[in-house]
C-alpha cells in the first residue's frame, strides 16, 4: 500500500471543499492510506492537475458552477488517460441516475454526510490501486 493517496476535490464553493476534507479526514478507513487533498475551484485547474499529478480519486461537486461536476466527470472520463475513479456530490439522492450518466463510480448526496463520504472514498481508494502507474497523466483529446 502506498504511504499517501492523493484526492482531487473540485468545487467552486470553498465550504463544500472544506466539508469534503473534513468528512474524508486524514484516513477515511483503517485499511486505506492517508489522504492528501488537492483543491481545485475551476475546470482548467482540474484538467491541469490531472495532467501534472498522480491523482488516486476525484471528488467532484455536481452543483459547482459554471462547470458542474457531472459534466466535468463525463469530460475527464473521455479525455484523461487512466482517469482516476470519481466520487460525485449530487444535489439530491434522486439525481443518482445522472451520476451514472456521467460515469462516476460513486455518488453521495448534499449536504455532505461525513460517514457516507468517508465510506465511499475509502471504497474507491481500495478499488483504485493502479499497479505500474508511473504517476503521469495525459489528455487524450484536445481541449
- Mean pLDDT equals 89
Let me know the number of strands: 5
CATH architecture: 3-Layer(aba) Sandwich
Biggest sheet, strands in spatial order?
2-1-3-4-5
> Stretches where pLDDT falls below 50 for ≥5 residues?
130-143
**Alpha-beta classification:** alpha/beta
Q: In percent, how helical is the residue content?
A: 25-40%
Largest sheet geometry: 5 strands, parallel
Q: Name the CATH superfamily classification.
A: Response regulator
Rg, alpha carbons: 14 Å
**CATH fold annotation:** Rossmann fold
Compute the separation of the termini in Å.
Answer: 34 Å
Number of domains: 1
Please give a structural write-up:
With 143 residues, the chain is an alpha/beta fold. The protein has a single domain, classed as Rossmann fold. The chain is built from five helices and five strands; from the N terminus they run βαβαβαβαβα. The protein has helices spanning 14-24, 43-52, 69-79, 96-101, 114-127, and strands at 4-10, 34-40, 57-61, 86-90, 106-109. It has a five-stranded parallel beta sheet with strand order 2-1-3-4-5, with helices on both faces. α3 links the parallel β3 and β4 (86-90). Mean pLDDT is 89; it is low at 130-143.
Which SSEs are present, and which pair or pack?
Blueprint: E1 4-10, H1 14-24, E2 34-40, H2 43-52, E3 57-61, H3 69-79, E4 86-90, H4 96-101, E5 106-109, H5 114-127
Parallel strand pairs: 1-2, 1-3, 3-4, 4-5
Amino acid at each position: 500500500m502506498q504511504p499517501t493517496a492523493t484526492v482531487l476535490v473540485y468545487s467552486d464553493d470553498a465550504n463544500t471543499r472544506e466539508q469534503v476534507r473534513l468528512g474524508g479526514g486524514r484516513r477515511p478507513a483503517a485499511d486505506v492510506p492517508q489522504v492528501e487533498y488537492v483543491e481545485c475551484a475551476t475546470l482548467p485547474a482540474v484538467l491541469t492537475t490531472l495532467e501534472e499529478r498522480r491523482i488516486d480519486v476525484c471528488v467532484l461537486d455536481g452543483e459547482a458552477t459554471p462547470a458542474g461536476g457531472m459534466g466535468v466527470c463525463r469530460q475527464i472520463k473521455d479525455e484523461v488517460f487512466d482517469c482516476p475513479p470519481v466520487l460525485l456530490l449530487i444535489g439530491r439522492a434522486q439525481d443518482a441516475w445522472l451520476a451514472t450518466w456521467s460515469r462516476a463510480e460513486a455518488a453521495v448526496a448534499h449536504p455532505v454526510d461525513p460517514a457516507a463520504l468517508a465510506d465511499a472514498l475509502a471504497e474507491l481508494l481500495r478499488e483504485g490501486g493502479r499497479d505500474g502507474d508511473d504517476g503521469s497523466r495525459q489528455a487524450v483529446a484536445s481541449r
